[in-house]
């Protein structure tokens, strides 16, 4: 049987990004696995379970019945959802009631017209944005209801549409399984109900941990009830070479898990037929201060032990003999009965599907500390692109502030679309940091370079970025200085890439030309330039890196860098002739993940950081993902789009009830047919034109048009779909490999 992780939190710690996953909240317990959507954000992990009730479900409207009952069927059983909500730190579910002459809660008799049914089939008389025991809606709490006499907007009983909506966040009551709507039997009464998916964040079980400080420390719990079946799983982390994890004794029966040596974990028990021991031997030491997972199971047929992903060790039970494990003593975690206890951390200890609260018990036990530190040793490798792993009490997070990336693992591109004439300048010296800087800013035109130039020069640079464009020539990136030194990355009139260095000592700037490759083809391209002294290494896309060397006469110091420009150079003083020519009309297209040494100028512009004061932008910078060729990703259909329901808080007045009467429907059908015919003709034309021009190599202009229109479509998809960038990222990686 497939082994699923216990929660979304566990998938995040395998370095997984947002997606649908199977989770098994009680291990090999009776619940079985369920499919949920895991949304990995920078600092939180959200688990989402969906149901089948359409948003804006209409009720009433000339209805005869007094009550209308809306049933919600989830993609999981109530017990499975309870397992998620009980281990979560916080859960919420959006609920909305739009009404026209249909009252919600407050009635003359005091019994609400409408209620919802939650966990354990209990009725609840509070609405979204309010809490248990308070028969009010959000507006009643905030005191801004349509009619101040009532505690819900709908209770004003107006003939115009009104709405009461908000989050239900008392997790012990979730999820909503039914909504019963009552005030519908008067002429003109209508209502629409929306319920979002249930979303939970955090997993208290996954990080429930204790640190054993001395080899005689232990925690004790009530006797383990595992007579016919035992399923024990936990994570451990240690630098000690041996110690007992846990033990529970009977008269002669017992069950025990221990670290026997630096490479051996042992699972032993006796059910009355004599002791049985199963040992897993690891090729690598297990006392490496990394997290290791242990899973031990025993039933009447067999027993098994697994450590990490090492092969499962299985032992069949004898056909005759005793099968019941009879235990009497308390369960000891750590040192038991004078044995040498485990030194280090144990986390997420589950026995027959129940997580033991090590943390609470450790708070009152000498020699044992609640929680664990040092998660980065195990999980730091998931922080990519130079992101730094930061320790947290329960887990870790990736700090992407020194990178040009974003997202929980620093793998999400931060990019922007530049329209013609737009540019961005990043000043290396923040405005007015010191007198010297102030002097240099006022005396830029001064003839004395000693005063103007802040004393900083570079012996090496590292530059990396990604771009896509269909227009050439253009300036992609330019680094200016307080001296004649500069560095530039250009696309020349033929669409070829050129890197240009001017560090002094040579008559002409030093150029690296990448001929025979059209870079202005609308596809994304990655550029990495590293200079160390005289040596320059350039890597383009997935081609092997190539090395170049500055001429012997060239200076190797980039003196007094001043600013970095993207899209266009707007700098005072003399400017290189070619660059001046390429500068108009300017770059059009996409730039992303721009990084120059420790500076990420685009990210500073798009994400408010302490570096944002260094940035000046001309034009409106539209965030965009340049990571994939624009036309390869169709917008997600509502059915497959995991975010579709998240826009629950928006109102969909026409969702599902758009075409009401026959006239509208007919005109819609005719319109649809005409649209299909026109679309077919256009497709045929495009195909013919591409076929005719194929040998002339001009077809990239078609792509250009596509790229531009897709840019705005991309932006549109991204606005609706925060996960879109993640999706592109994956496809792009495959393309680059």
From TrEMBL:
SMART domains per the UniProt record, alphabetical: 4.1m (SM00294), LamG (SM00282)
InterPro entries named in the record: ConA-like_dom_sf (IPR013320), EGF (IPR000742), Fibrinogen-like_C (IPR036056), Fibrinogen_a/b/g_C_dom (IPR002181), Laminin_G (IPR001791), Neurexin-like (IPR003585), Neurexin-related_CASP (IPR050372)
Keyword presence, Signal: yes
GO CC term (a single one): membrane
Limits of the Laminin G domain: 208-372, 440-626
Location of the Fibrinogen C-terminal domain: 1-51
Covalent S-S links between cysteines: 345-372
Subcellular location as annotated: Membrane
SUPFAM superfamilies, per database record: Concanavalin A-like lectins/glucanases, Fibrinogen C-terminal domain-like
Membrane-traversing stretches: 668-689
Name of the protein described by the UniProt record: CNTP2 protein
Organism encoding this protein: Rhagologus leucostigma
Lineage, broadest ranks: Eukaryota, Metazoa, Chordata, Craniata, Vertebrata
Gene that encodes the chain: Cntnap2_0
């Amino acid at each position: 049987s497939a082994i699923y992780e216990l929660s979304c939190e566990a998938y995040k710690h395998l370095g997984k990004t947002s997606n649908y996953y199977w989770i098994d909240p009680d291990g090999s317990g009776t619940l079985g696995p369920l499919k949920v959507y895991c949304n990995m954000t920078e600092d939180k992990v959200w688990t989402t379970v969906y149901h089948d009730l359409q948003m804006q479900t209409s009720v009433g409207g000339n209805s005869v019945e007094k009550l209308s009952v809306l049933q919600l069927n989830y993609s999981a059983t109530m017990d499975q959802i309870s397992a998620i909500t009980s281990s979560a730190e916080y859960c919420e579910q959006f609920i909305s009631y739009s009404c026209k002459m249909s009252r919600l809660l407050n009635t003359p008799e005091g019994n609400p017209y409408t209620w919802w049914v939650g966990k354990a089939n209990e009725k609840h008389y509070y609405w979204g944005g309010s809490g248990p025991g308070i028969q009010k809606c959000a507006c009643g709490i905030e005191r801004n209801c349509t009619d101040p006499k009532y505690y819900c907007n709908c209770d004003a009983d107006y003939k115009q549409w009104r709405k009461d909506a908000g989050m239900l966040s008392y997790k012990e009551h979730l999820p909503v399984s039914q909504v019963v709507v009552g005030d519908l039997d008067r002429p003109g009464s209508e209502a629409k109900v929306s319920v979002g998916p249930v979303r939970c964040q955090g997993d208290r079980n996954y990080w429930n941990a204790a640190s054993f400080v001395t080899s005689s420390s232990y925690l004790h719990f009530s006797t383990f009830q595992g007579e016919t079946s035992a399923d024990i799983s936990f994570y451990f982390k240690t630098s000690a070479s041996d110690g007992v994890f846990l033990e529970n004794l009977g008269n002669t029966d017992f069950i025990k898990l221990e670290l026997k040596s630096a490479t051996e974990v042992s699972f032993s028990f006796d059910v009355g037929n004599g002791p049985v021991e199963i040992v897993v031997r690891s090729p690598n030491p297990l006392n490496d201060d990394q997290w290791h997972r242990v899973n031990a199971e025993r039933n009447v047929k067999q027993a098994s032990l697994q450590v990490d992903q090492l092969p499962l060790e299985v032992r069949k039970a004898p056909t005759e003999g005793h099968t019941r494990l009879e235990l009497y003593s308390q369960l000891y975690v750590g040192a038991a009965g004078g044995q040498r206890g485990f030194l280090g951390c144990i986390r997420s200890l589950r026995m027959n599907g129940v997580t033991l609260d090590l943390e609470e018990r450790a708070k009152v036990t000498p020699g044992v500390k609640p929680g664990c530190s040092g998660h980065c040793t195990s999980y730091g490798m998931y922080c990519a692109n130079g992101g730094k792993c930061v320790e947290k009490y329960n887990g870790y997070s990736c700090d992407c502030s020194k990178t040009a990336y974003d997202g929980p693992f620093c793998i999400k591109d931060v990019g922007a679309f530049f329209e013609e004439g737009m540019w961005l300048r990043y000043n290396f010296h923040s405005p007015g940091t010191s007198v010297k800087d102030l002097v240099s800013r006022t005396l830029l035109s001064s003839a004395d370079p000693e005063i103007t130039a802040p004393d900083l020069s570079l012996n090496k640079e590292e530059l990396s970025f990604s771009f896509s464009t269909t227009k050439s020539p253009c300036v992609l990136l330019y680094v200016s200085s307080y001296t004649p030194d500069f560095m530039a990355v250009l696309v020349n009139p033929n669409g070829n890439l050129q890197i240009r260095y001017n560090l002094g000592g040579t008559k002409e700037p030093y150029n690296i030309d990448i001929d025979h490759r059209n870079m202005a083809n609308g596809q994304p391209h990655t550029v990495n330039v590293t200079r160390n002294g005289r040596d320059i290494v350039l890597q383009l896309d997935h081609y092997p890196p190539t090395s170049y060397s500055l001429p012997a006469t060239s200076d190797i110091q980039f003196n007094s860098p001043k600013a970095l420009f993207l899209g266009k150079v707007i700098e005072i003083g003399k400017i290189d002739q070619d660059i001046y020519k390429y500068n108009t009309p300017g770059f059009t297209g996409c730039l992303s993940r721009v990084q120059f040494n420790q500076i990420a100028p685009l990210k500073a512009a798009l994400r408010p950081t302490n570096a944002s004061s260094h940035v000046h932008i001309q034009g409106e910078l539209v965030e965009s993902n340049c990571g994939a060729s624009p036309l390869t990703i169709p917008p997600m259909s509502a059915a497959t789009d995991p975010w579709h329901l998240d826009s629950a808080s928006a109102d969909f007045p026409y969702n599902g009830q758009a075409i009401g009467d026959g006239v509208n429907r007919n005109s819609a059908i005719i319109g649809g047919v005409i649209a299909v015919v026109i679309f077919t003709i256009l497709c045929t034309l495009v195909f013919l034109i591409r076929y005719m021009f194929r040998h002339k190599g001009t077809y990239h202009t078609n792509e250009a048009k596509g790229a531009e229109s897709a840019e705005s479509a991309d932006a549109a998809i991204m606005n609706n779909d925060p996960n879109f960038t993640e999706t592109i990222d994956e496809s792009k990686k495959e393309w680059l490999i």
